[in-house]
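User: Here's a chain of 466 residues. Predict its fold as tokens.
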Amino acid sequence: MKGIMKSFKHYKTKVYDKWSPTTKIMFWLAVLAISLTVIFGVLSLLSNTSNQEISEDIVKTRLGHADRLLEGGMTKDALEIYIDLLEKVSEKNYPEHYAHIKSKEGRCYLNLVLMGENQEDNIKKAILAFEDALKIYTDEEYPFDYGNIQNDIGNSYYILAEIRNREDNLEKAILAFEKALKVYRNKRLVQTIDIGEGIKLGIYKVEEYVNYAGVQVGLGNAYSSLAEVRDKKNNLEKAIDAYKYALDVYTIDKHPSEYAAAQNNLGIAYFTIAEFQDIWGKLNSTQKAILAIEEALKVYTVENDSLRYADAKNNLGLAYTTRGKFVSGEGNIEKAINAFEDALKVYSFEENPDSYAGAKSNRGAAYPLLANSRDKEENLEKAILDFEDALRVYNIKDYPIKYALNQYNIGLAHKYLATYKNKEENLEKAISAFEESLKIYTPENYPDWHNIVKLELEKAKQQREL
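Assistant: Prediction complete.
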């Protein structure tokens, strides 16, 4: 050090003192810049070293704490820990922990979506986190982790499909569910145990088998939703197969909630597919639908799960309505109306407006079928009241399609009622309702429905002239 200072003093005497003030300032600024560069470089090195050398025990401890928070419903607190850990844990230093953190981070975002918070943004974050986890959780090395993450991705795309790009996101959901199912189809559900004397026993890994059933339900839901977009019959058949596979696993005793959900969704698929079948197929499918939904109602009661009970009752009403369209007699329609009324004992306009309006609209559609058997005027008037009540929710701005359909049904009911009473008044109301419906069912956007409503409008006008 003394030698350095001596050299500097010599340099200062010979050179530095001869510099101008400006040159001296520039010299010291250069020295300062070099010093700061060295300091920040050292700090960065120390920081990186600290991150790389974080104790695995600390990672495990914090991960365990975050996992317990997540399981306890404290999603935001858990997410904060996972994000903080990702500053220190990477796919290079602790790959398994990294994948675990990423999978849990994705589930946190998925929980936030289910809580109604920033749904589109959080569902996209969930998908990205799950895809990061799959960089480690490969099919070959971590088959069941891979399957679980693909299932989560499938559920995420299914939710995203309800927000935007429905067909595209449903196809992505189906692809993810199919990837998950490959894990189980490769006979990895079976574990071989040597029980001695050369005898080996194959048993099911129970937890994975239940996960397999959950994937099948997700796949069934995706196909059911895709059926509303295209290839209705084909996609409903695939949905039915998926629900049936799930019900090979789920039992009412061991998995009551999962069993009930699968039965309820199976019932919906059965009564929906009936419209594409011949008379024998319709009889078979609607009967299976009724039996499936009644199985769900063995779990869903008004006391233990009132909203799911009401949903199942509404679906039971739809199954009986579908059956009543081609089976003579009023028994099925009466059962449908009773089921809708049970649902409406739970649904309220204030607390469940969408479900309330749906059940009202569905009951309204059942009354004209009952009018074919008895009390024509009374049942048509009840239908009109239900459709009009549904329109308190289904306004043209927020629910344009449901608004148009209810207006069409109001028009039909008034048109038929005009045959029995107040001809001129009912036909004017029918014409007005059909014209309201055509505000949505335009020839450009809904050509088929436009033609159907336009034909009924013309019939009502002709009937008025008679």
